[in-house]
């Protein structure tokens, strides 16, 4: 006898499980477990992201078209990147061009890594007719204040001799003049929206160099050099544009790319997960659902401050739909995750039979997690 369909569907909307599962695979595995435990239930897979790595993949899974583009990587060597396009909207993921994973041999270059390739992706989006460009920040290998980004779009950054500055944050100490060039014409009619989940300013103890420089290989001496360069850049940008956004929340994102986007591209900045859920049509997908399942590699205190699962939980709550979480590791106590709006939470580490299984058998355990959540939360 065929299974009777349950009333209302389930939406599976996880972020990536970093190092083990991409968002789309996590969604597929959790969904498979739900279908096995609750035959006849319609399950919709909608992997999400918060603006960092995985943003492009989430857009592609939601029906955007992949456009391959060869661009300059963080050290200037060419890399194969891509952007996503649907209609007049384009999604650019910074990590595709200048992410840490793009460093040749994994060797960091804290003083000389740049963001030129990101500007090339934006330029390609404009050439394709994009009128709204969503720029996802996160995972950057550079601390150049977004200098490379704007150079790729026609801005000239000149030293005292009138020579163009080379890539990297260190070179900004020699900046003497900013020539906007054809930037305004190139971006005419195009809106840039930055998807960002951090609120760091460009400079100071919470700034791009101080907080994120060490992750990119910068030692104490390097940090002083980068801070000096970024300060010089901010001073000249303010003098050239009449706008000083160095202390704006998010200006320090992605090594200062947030700063250049705000100050020179006229971008607006929005919380990454909020913007991505809107872009992916989450509100429409969750309408009439019985349950939403989200997740990420580690559900911890950071999750509660703008990460994807918290954003999904908030959106599901607005729709009056229960939400559960699957995580590689669960570092929140039950009162904490319940207070965040989750009806249930499962960790792959708790489902593992042997230490390390949550990494080596993540896909299988994600399926088991989906099965258990369905048995618990989808009675009948």
TrEMBL record:
Transmembrane segments: none annotated. Keywords: Kinase, Transferase. InterPro entries: Glyc_kinase_flavodox-like_fold (IPR018193), Glycerate_kinase (IPR004381), Glycerate_kinase_RE-like (IPR018197), Glycerate_kinase_sf (IPR036129). It comes from the Bacteria. One of its GO terms (molecular function) is glycerate kinase activity. GO terms for biological process: organic acid phosphorylation. Signal peptide: none annotated. NCBIfam families: glycerate kinase. Belongs to the glycerate kinase type-1 family. This is Glycerate kinase.
């Amino acid at each position: 006898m065929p299974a009777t369909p349950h009333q209302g569907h389930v939406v599976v909307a996880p972020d990536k499980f970093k190092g083990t599962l991409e968002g789309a695979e996590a969604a597929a595995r959790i969904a498979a477990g739900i279908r096995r435990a609750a035959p006849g239930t319609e399950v919709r897979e909608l992997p999400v992201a918060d603006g960092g790595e995985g943003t492009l993949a989430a857009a592609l899974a939601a029906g955007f078209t992949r456009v391959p583009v060869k661009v300059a990587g963080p050290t200037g060597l060419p890399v194969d990147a891509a952007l996503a396009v649907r209609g007049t909207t384009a999604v650019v993921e910074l990590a595709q061009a200048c992410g840490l994973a793009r460093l040749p041999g994994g060797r960091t270059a804290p003083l000389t890594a740049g963001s030129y390739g990101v500007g090339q992706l934006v330029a390609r989006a404009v050439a394709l007719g994009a009128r709204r460009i969503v720029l996802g920040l996160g995972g950057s290998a550079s601390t150049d204040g977004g200098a490379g980004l704007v150079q790729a779009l026609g801005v000239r950054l000149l030293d005292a001799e009138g020579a163009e500055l080379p890539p990297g944050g260190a070179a900004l100490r020699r900046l003497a003049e900013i020539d906007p060039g054809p930037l305004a014409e190139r971006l005419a009619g195009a809106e840039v929206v930055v998807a960002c989940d951090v609120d760091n300013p460009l400079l100071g103890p919470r700034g791009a160099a101080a907080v994120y420089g060490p992750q990119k290989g910068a030692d104490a001496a390097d940090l002083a050099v980068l801070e000096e360069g970024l300060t010089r850049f901010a001073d000249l940008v303010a003098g050239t544009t009449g706008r000083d956004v160095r202390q704006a929340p998010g200006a320090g994102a992605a090594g200062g790319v947030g700063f250049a986007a705000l100050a020179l591209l006229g971008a607006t900045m929005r919380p990454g997960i909020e913007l991505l859920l809107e872009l992916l049509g989450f509100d429409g997908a969750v309408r009439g659902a019985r349950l939403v399942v989200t997740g990420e590699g580690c559900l911890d205190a950071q999750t509660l401050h703008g990460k994807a699962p918290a954003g999904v939980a908030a959106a599901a709550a607005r729709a009056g739909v229960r939400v559960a979480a699957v995580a590689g590791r669960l570092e929140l106590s039950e009162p904490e995750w319940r207070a965040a709006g989750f009806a249930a939470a499962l960790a792959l580490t708790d489902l593992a039979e042997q230490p390390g299984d949550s990494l080596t058998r993540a896909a299988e355990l994600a399926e088991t997690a989906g099965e258990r959540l369905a048995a618990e939360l989808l009675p009948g």
